[in-house]
Amino acid sequence: MNFTSQFFMETESLRSQLTENLDEAEWDWLTPHLEREIVIIVESQLDLLTVGEAIAQDNSVSVQHWISEALIHKPSPEQILEWNDQPKKRFQALIVQPFVLIQEL
């Protein structure tokens, strides 16, 4: 097995693991993580699993690009207030230690 095929297998395995961990969550379930400042919003232009892979693989180039384009970010105070008024609002959620990545449904 060469490096390329090994890397591909590891990437596929990681994606499979992340896919298994992808779930829906209500806002009120996410607030304990918000208090620990580990909730990251992934804008709808991005695929949640792709962002999770990049974070898990420490792909700082992609992550920095998304941050600079405001495609991934912490919730704003306005968003938090809005969602606190909608505790049953649903999100796609993906835990990639130490973060909880969320995307509005």
3D structure, described in words:
The chain is of the alpha+beta class and about 100 residues long. It has one domain. It is about 50% helix and about 20% strand. The protein is built from five helices and five strands. The chain has helices at about 5-20, 25-35, 50-55, 60-70, 75-85; strands at about 25, 40, 70-75, 90-95, 100-105. Strands 1-4-5-2-3 form a five-stranded mixed β-sheet. A hairpin with a 2-residue loop joins strand 4 and strand 5 (about 100-105). The protein is globular, with a radius of gyration of 15 Å. About 20% of the residues are buried.
Outline:
By secondary structure, the protein is of the alpha+beta class. It has one domain (3-104). It contains five helices and five strands.
Topology:
Layout: H1 3-21, E1 23-26, H2 27-35, E2 39-42, H3 48-56, H4 60-68, E3 72-73, H5 77-84, E4 90-96, E5 99-104
Parallel strand pairs: 2-5
Antiparallel strand pairs: 1-4, 2-3, 4-5
Report the span from N to C terminus.
41 Å
Proportion of residues in extended strands: 15-25%
Mean pLDDT: 89
Total helical segments: 5
Q: What structural category arises from helix and sheet content? A: alpha+beta
Q: Which oligomeric state applies?
A: single chain
Q: How are the strands of the biggest sheet laid out side by side?
A: 1-4-5-2-3
Q: Tally the structural domains.
A: 1
**Helix percentage:** 40-55%
- Helix-strand sequence: HEHEHHEHEE
Low-confidence stretches: 1-9
> Which outline best applies?
globular
Please give the radius of gyration in angstroms.
Answer: 15 Å
Q: Main sheet, how many strands, which sense, barrel?
A: 5 strands, mixed
Structure summary, number of beta strands: 5
